[in-house]
Amino acid sequence: MNENKPEGIGDIIESMKTSSTLGKNLQEARIWERWPEIVGPKLMPYGQPLGVRDETLFIQVESAVWMHKFSYQKPQIIQQANKLVGEKLVSEIFLTLNSEDDSK
Degrees (nearest 5) of the Cα angle 68, 95, 89? Predict the structure, then answer.
């Protein structure tokens, strides 16, 4: 009669990581959580992750100068992100400029 024994929340989350969109989103959230480690202290203040779609990490950067600096670090950012997340989540990076147009 132990068939109805409830599963622990940790077990449920682990199974969802591999079988659901929520699980993938949880893995992507680890990029935000570990962002300082992924890009390092010099780049961190000048770019923020926006999301991951089709293994492409979208990063919003502060200026064209910082876009150039981030572009040189793409291979290292991809490698570090995948290492810290624990799986190949990112294979490409797309950089976009921060539009500070708040007049909308």
Answer: 120
Question: What angle in degrees, to the nearest 10, is found between the helix axes of 64-72 and 74-85?
Answer: 70
CB 43 within 8 A of CB 65: no
d(CA 96, CA 104): 19
Residue appearing with tokens 């007049």 = 103
β-pairing, 56-61 vs 92-97, is: parallel
At residue 85, does pLDDT exceed 90? no
> Per-residue pLDDT tens for 30-83?
888 899 999 999 999 999 999 999 999 999 999 999 999 999 999 999 999 999
Domains and CATH numbers, the chain: 2-97 (3.30.300)
Phi, psi of 87 (to 5 degrees): -160, 165
